[in-house]
Amino acid sequence: VLYMRGRLAEMKGNLEEARQLYDEALTVNPAGVEIMHSLGLVLSRLGRRDLAQKVLRDAIRIQTTSHRAWNSLGEVLQAQGKNEAAVECFLTALDLESSSPVIPFTVIPREL
Q1: Does residue 105 lie within any of the structural domains?
Q2: Tell me, what's the pLDDT at 103?
Q3: Which of 5, 6, 103, 110 lies in the 20 to 30 Å Cα band around 18?
Q4: How many Å apart are CA 96 and CA 26, to the nearest integer?
Q5: Does the pLDDT value for residue 111 go beyond 60?
Q6: Residue 2: which H helix or E strand, with range?
Q7: Gene3D superfamilies recorded for this chain (predicted)?
Q8: How confident is the model at residue 100 (pLDDT cuts 50, 70, 90)?
Q9: Is residue 15 part of a domain?
Q10: Residue 4: which pLDDT band, with cuts at 50, 70 and 90?
Q11: How far is CA 67 from CA 21, 46, 70, 84, 90, in A?
Q12: Is residue 10 part of a domain?
């Protein structure tokens, strides 16, 4: 519920409120990669790129195959002028995305 409220706040442009809600959501689910990803994006938009980078790296440590987190980390690094590191992240994201399922396996019905 906190994560969804954060997404709504983010969509409305209430970035500070979204950040607070994502922080609260992480206290409930500290290993929530999607929450970390969203928090990282909001922190970057708020200009807090060092913290955004840390949060996105934490997400990647938990789920190394998250192409979205790798891509977002690349965007943060690029905004910081760390172009070589950004390129590595973008290439990793592309490689992971090419082997990522179109629909997450958790969504596919058990019987077709």
Answers
A1: no
A2: 58
A3: 103
A4: 25
A5: no
A6: helix 2-11
A7: Tetratricopeptide repeat domain (1.25.40.10)
A8: confident
A9: yes
A10: very high
A11: 24, 22, 5, 18, 9
A12: yes
Residue given tokens 């500290």 in the structure block: 30
Burial class from Cβ neighbours inside 10 Å (0-12, 13-18, 19+) for residue 57 reads middle
Structure tokens at 25: 């959501």
In a domain, 107, yes or no: no
Q: Tell me how far apart the 2 most distant CA atoms of the chain are, in Å.
A: 48
74 vs 63, 70, 77, 108, CA distance in Å?
A: 16, 6, 5, 30
Q: Model confidence over 52-62: pLDDT tens digits?
A: 999 999 999 99
- In whole angstroms, how far apart are CA 37 and each of 14, 30, 63, 110? 17, 12, 11, 28
Residue range 11-50, pLDDT digits in tens? 999 999 999 999 999 999 999 999 999 999 999 999 999 9
Domain ranges, residue 32: 2-98
Q: Which tokens belong to 49?
A: 């790129």
What is the pTM assigned to this prediction? 0.87
